[in-house]
Fold AraC family transcriptional regulator.
Amino acid sequence: MSCLKISIDTPVRFLAAGEFISETPWTHAARSMGCYELIIGVSETVYLREEDTRFEVGPGDALLLRPGLAHGGYRASPPGVKFYWFHFDCPQGAQWLTAPAMKRTAEEIQAREHRAWSVGEVYLPQHLHIEQKERIGILVSQILHVANANYLTAHSVNYLLTSLFIEISEQVLAPTPARGARMQGDAQFIKMAEWTRIHAEEPLTVSALAAKFNYNKDYLTRLFKQHTGMGPLDFIHSVRIAKAKELLSRTALSVREIAAEAGYPDDKYFMRLFRQHTNMTPTQYRNAYHKTFMNNV
């Protein structure tokens, strides 16, 4: 994938951001801008082109638009389309890497003997499906809140936006089982953990998970602790709480509705668990980052 390589010795410079919602069919206006724009899809699909290249931005997709290049909609989005948008520039400069150049860069980074803390740049892909949607959603809520809350601290929103880019970059640079960097056992665990994440809101038990993947419970527990530092039940709770955080920051659902969506039919039990994980109530968490700028044009 093609990527924008940005030095983060200093943070990127935030210019503007918001949450776009349209209740009627909508097509993005044709224009060219003097800054970068990152779009993250939330619901329905945005149909955008940059010059002659067409993109579809669905829920969880990210698209980077470059300055000086014409972009606009090539097809109407259905009612209910929603996405977050961020305008920014790069005071330290930036370099556009083609897909082959980005592949070589990622391979070089993964070949380093000591990879941790060794990268001084972020790599923003032009088009990507975000895997850690809950984590990204929380960062987005923080950015939009700080951008509209008149914080006194200089660079507050710049550093938060840079943190968002770091999360996206980590996904881009992370090795995959297909690259041969992990053993088959690791790849099997990744498959099991992803299945658990997808089904976490269901009435899932450790016994059912062990039976699904033909492991005994003790071995399953050792696997989870080896790879995540927590047992399978704690992992399930962590996924559910992350989902609840995302819903609290992004929707107006009641706490009881969010508890049910996250996999907890007992909302009082959910509130106790949420407080154990976050040291605050769901309502306190929701009120922590609630300011945003919304537009529909």
Summary: The chain has two domains: 3-112+120-174, 182-288. The two ends are 30 Å apart (CA to CA). Confidence is low (pLDDT under 50) at residues 177-184. Residues 232-250 form the longest helix (19 residues).
